Amino acid sequence: KRKEQRRAYSDLSTVARSVSPVRSSSLPPASDSAMDENQVKQILEKQVLTVAKAVEDKLDEEITALDRLDLDDLEALRERRLQQMKKMAERRSRWISLGHGEYTEISEKDFFAAVKASDRVVCHFYRENWPCKVMDKHLAILAKQHIETRFLKIHAEKSPFLTEKLRIVVLPTLALVKNAKVEDYVVGFNELGGTDEFSTEELEERLGKAQVIFFEGEASTNPLKSSTTKRSVRQSETSHSSDSD
Predict the structure, then answer these.
(1) What is the pTM of this model?
(2) Could you tell me which residues belong to the region Disordered (predicted)?
(3) At 32, is the secondary structure helix, strand, or coil?
(4) How many Å apart are CA 84 and CA 89, to the nearest integer?
(5) What is the 3-state secondary structure (H, E, C) of 127-186?
(6) How confident is the model at residue 47 (pLDDT cuts 50, 70, 90)?
């Protein structure tokens, strides 16, 4: 746009200068005029320069305005970006202070405080067996990759109240908690290919479907509708539980 404005000014100046001979040729002969041809040219040239100067000043004002607008836009964008970075840094600091970024074992009595403090929690109910050790390996990796979510483990056999309350039957079971509510479960390896050779990425995708982690994969755009009824961890329930190998 700036180049077009400069080009328009140049064209205007060229046209204006070309007016001089036309105007002078249309004037009466020197003998019938009080001013000779040189005086007429000087007046016309002065007028042309005045008009050209006014046009140039106007263009300079517009260019300055455009430059100022561009700088303002860049400054506004920079300010927004800085604010976003500041907010993210504050969130990361808070997450780390809550224990995010690590795969941590907690006791039954600490569970309720943990899920109230963090918006997203993946809690592994385990026992000392091979399948649970496999799950441990993948969760330890994901805990470091997804600092936005807290990754916990609880020994099911040492937490009878909680396993009964949440109806934990098969081990390993992952309770996927959002905003202090158990939204979904990953029970055993059935949803992970039915084998202990599933990849960390497969588990990550499954957690992404439940929207308990920030997942940029295709699966995260189609949240999984769990058939399990949502239950608040604050709600009291009466049920029976048993563990399987």
Answers:
(1) 0.59
(2) 1-36, 221-245
(3) helix
(4) 9
(5) CCCHHHHHHHHHHHHHHHHCCCCEEEEEEHHHCHHHHHHCCCCECCEEEEEECCEEEEEE
(6) confident
Cα angle for residues 194, 198, 204 (degrees, 5° grid): 110
pLDDT at 66: 65
Q: What is the mean pLDDT of residues 138-156?
A: 97
d(CA 63, CA 167): 70
pLDDT at 46: 79
Alpha-carbon gap, residue 14 to 22, rounded angstroms: 13
> Quick one: pLDDT at residue 31?
52
Fill in the amino acid letter for 130.
Answer: W
Give CA angle at 21 (19, 27), nearest 5°. 105
CB-based contact 94:150 (threshold 8 Å): no
- Tell me which fold the domain 103-232 belongs to: Glutaredoxin (3.40.30)
In total, the chain counts a number of residues equal to: 245
Burial annotation 52-65 (CB, 10 A radius, 16+ → b, else e): beebeeebeeeeee
Contact (CB, 8 A) for 213 and 149: yes
Over residues 150-175, mean pLDDT: 97
Helix (H, G, I), strand (E, B) or coil at 2: helix
Give per-residue pLDDT as tens, 87-98: 999 999 999 999
Residues 6+ apart with CB under 8 A from 110: none
